[in-house]
Amino acid sequence: MRMKNLYKKPITNLRCSSWSRYCSISLVILWTLLILGCILLLHLYSNNNTSLNIIHPPPLPSHFHQLQHVEKENFQIPPPNKKRSPQSKSITPLVDEFLDQDSSLRHVFFPHKTIDPMKTIGKGKNDSYNYYYPGKIWLDTDGNPIQAHGGCILYDENSSTYYWYGEYKDGPTYLHNNKGPARVDIIGVGCYSSKDLWTWKKEGIALAAEKTDKTHDLHKSNVLERPKVIYNEKTRKYVMWMHIDNANYAKATVGIAFSDTPTGPFKYLGSQRPHRYQSRDMTLFKDEDNVAYLIYSSEENNVMHIGPLTEDYLNVTSVMKRIFVGQRREAPAMFKHKGTYYMVTSGCTGWAPNEALVHSAETILGTWETIGNPCVAGNKMFRVSTFLAQSTFVLPLTRFPGLFIFMADRWNPSELRDSRYVWLPLIVDGHEDQAFQYGFDNKLWPRVSIYWHKKWKLPLGWNTF
Ligand SMILES: *[C@@H]1O[C@H](CO)[C@@H](O)[C@H](O)[C@H]1NC(C)=O
Ligand SMILES: *[C@@H]1O[C@H](CO)[C@@H](O)[C@H](O)[C@H]1NC(C)=O
Ligand SMILES: *[C@@H]1O[C@H](CO)[C@@H](O)[C@H](O)[C@H]1NC(C)=O
């Protein structure tokens, strides 16, 4: 923008009439100076860029190549079912089919097959060990389906253990006031632990619903979504933030709780409208300097807000930036790679899947730019519906910089407890991608890709420190 004005101003201001010769000479000089200036600026800028971004990263280890394979997903969409609701707001025939409980593809979207890590334990690291099967039923070490929806993972250095927190939804699904949205009464925040990110032991309910007091935020008739937990080194507390709402989503607040141990029970402190704004889908991000941030969908989901927390992580500060203004994004999942910040978000279509977008920024409060759809799959409809899932968290694998686990939820609105987990490799590599919207910078960003796989596993050695 600024560059445009620089060009425009001298031309409109110089009036070349009687002394036109003098004018054209000065114009030539002016243009020459401007062009030289631009070249200098561009040069400085691209040097700067090279040090900030990975323009030419080291080649990824060869075992990444398997993860970057573009996998086909061949299924035929049957002809439209006449009974289908005409006011369906979905984006593709695939999503219509997905939302149809009687679809002949139901077994593809919600396969009955269970993945039971206990069945392969002790059998050595053979080929059936440690594979993720996105969309299949994933059992914990007791043999029950894992209940940690809209979740996050905390790596606890004290115990060298991963903790997976999420909505424990193992109750009946019903429609609020018989018309919607589909809901399950609050049970609480489920907590699971693992050393290998594949075998998960149920630790119990880290923050439980309130059964009797109807005025309590956590009363079972309310809404608790997207719990996120981070550790505060200073206070040595585990701090949980979550979306707290009433059943018609009009309250729009964020709740805060803390605990001395990762498994809880967490002590609930209360809820607030951060910076006096509505807050619905949200996440937390703890930066390398230990400053933590709250990111939340606000202003009727039209704008995302981001702002730092206080040092104890128990409140927001007065600093807040509005980002993605008017873009209507939710389900934020944030990560950082080589000094650049990234966020995956979804659109706002209730429980129905839609297209993911990835956004980037060089400083955490912005300017944020939207890069595009990170999903890579052989099937286009799968690509524009985030593999029929919605982002919730991105987990870095520190042993392999550039490799992350993208965690998403495949919501099942007719039986929310049977919603499935879609975990896939997310890779930031060197093929640059342009921003969607062109600001002054119009910069190239490292490409962020999420690769679809029916089954996949982490590269060997991911957990050796
Ligand atoms: C690998 O483990 C599976 C499941 O336990 C077993 O059925 C299979 O025989 C094993 N394969 C080899 C080569 O050991
Ligand atoms: C660290 O873990 C040990 C047990 O492994 C526990 O006794 C201790 O309280 C933990 N410390 C923190 C700060 O969580
Ligand atoms: C959080 O901070 C705001 C001001 O920034 C203050 O009004 C509010 O009382 C604080 N909440 C708590 C629970 O400390």
Topology diagram in text:
Blueprint: H1 2-13, H2 20-52, H3 64-67, H4 93-99, H5 106-109, E1 114-115, E2 137-138, E3 149-156, E4 161-168, E5 174-175, E6 182-183, E7 188-194, E8 201-208, E9 223-232, E10 237-245, E11 253-259, E12 267-272, E13 282-286, E14 292-298, E15 303-308, E16 321-323, E17 330-337, E18 340-346, E19 357-361, E20 369-372, E21 375-376, H6 380-383, E22 390-396, E23 403-410, E24 420-434, E25 444-451
Parallel strand pairs: 1-2, 21-25
Antiparallel strand pairs: 3-4, 4-7, 5-6, 7-8, 9-10, 10-11, 11-12, 13-14, 14-15, 15-16, 17-18, 18-19, 19-20, 22-23, 23-24, 24-25
The chain binds 2-acetamido-2-deoxy-beta-D-glucopyranose (NAG) (3 copies).
List keywords for this structure.
single chain, Tachylectin-2, Chain A, 6 helices, 34% strand, globular, binds 2-acetamido-2-deoxy-beta-D-glucopyranose, transmembrane, Glyco_hydro_beta-prop_sf, membrane, EC 3.2.1.145, beta-galactosidase activity
Give a written overview of the molecule.
The protein has 465 residues and is α+β, with helices and mostly antiparallel strands. The protein has a single domain, classed as Glycosyl hydrolase domain, family 43 (Tachylectin-2, Chain A). It has helices spanning 2-13, 20-52, 64-67, 93-99, 106-109, 380-383, and strands spanning 114-115, 137-138, 149-156, 161-168, 174-175, 182-183, 188-194, 201-208, 223-232, 237-245, 253-259, 267-272, 282-286, 292-298, 303-308, 321-323, 330-337, 340-346, 357-361, 369-372, 375-376, 390-396, 403-410, 420-434, 444-451. Strand 7 and strand 8 form a beta hairpin. The radius of gyration is 25 Å and the shape is globular. Bound molecules: 2-acetamido-2-deoxy-beta-D-glucopyranose (NAG) (3 copies). The site of one 2-acetamido-2-deoxy-beta-D-glucopyranose has 4 residues, from loops. It comes from Medicago truncatula.
